[in-house]
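JOB MANIFEST
job_type = single_chain_structure
chain_count = 1
residues = 228
[input]
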Amino acid sequence: MTSNHHQRSWRGIAGQVGDVLADVPLFLTAPLYRRRHLRWGATNDEVASTMPGDGRFPDAQFVATRSITIDAEPAAVWPWLVQVGCGRAGFYSNDFLDNLARPSATTIVPELQHLEIGQWVPMSPSATPTDKTALRVDSFEIASWLLWVKPDSTWSWRLTPTASGGTRLVTRIHAVYDWSHPLTAVLGVVLMEFGDFAMMRRMLRGIKTRAETTGDHPPLPTPRAPGA
């Protein structure tokens, strides 16, 4: 391995650490403007609209709907969602925190474009994914919507074409703090109340940048998954 490669690697990690440090104020202050960041970028209609998985956890203490407009059609945005995952294409966010300091993919990865119900979406480097370390693909409709689930949360996505040929990308998280398991609940509070907004904002912006700067996308399969 060349010294130039080492230099590039360390430079990349330094950049990732810099991104985390830049987000520290958001991490620390997120609870202070909770009502605003729980609907970052979303319109009133988007906040009020129904999303896949809404009925799973009606009493969830954390419910956030965020949105962003992308200057690319849904078919060009969809592949970036399909390949998400720690150790896969990453989360296009703070790679130092959520992808083992491996840079998130900046291209569509063909071997990660297979999607099926029950498939794991790893959130940690665990060799064997479990319901504690990964989400599962619950249901989807190609280039339209996608639902990931865990025993205590749902994470859904909806892609709506805009009149100008772009995409309105909406995402919603429901998370339950189970106080019958205090340590798990406290961890959930820390991750969602302090960490979620900064990470999600970076993820949405990361998807937007990638979809808008990558012109090509793989052909979409024609079968449609069962409804949510």
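[summary]
The CA atoms of residues 40 and 129 lie 30 Å apart.
Residues 182-213 form the longest helix (32 residues).
exit_status = 0
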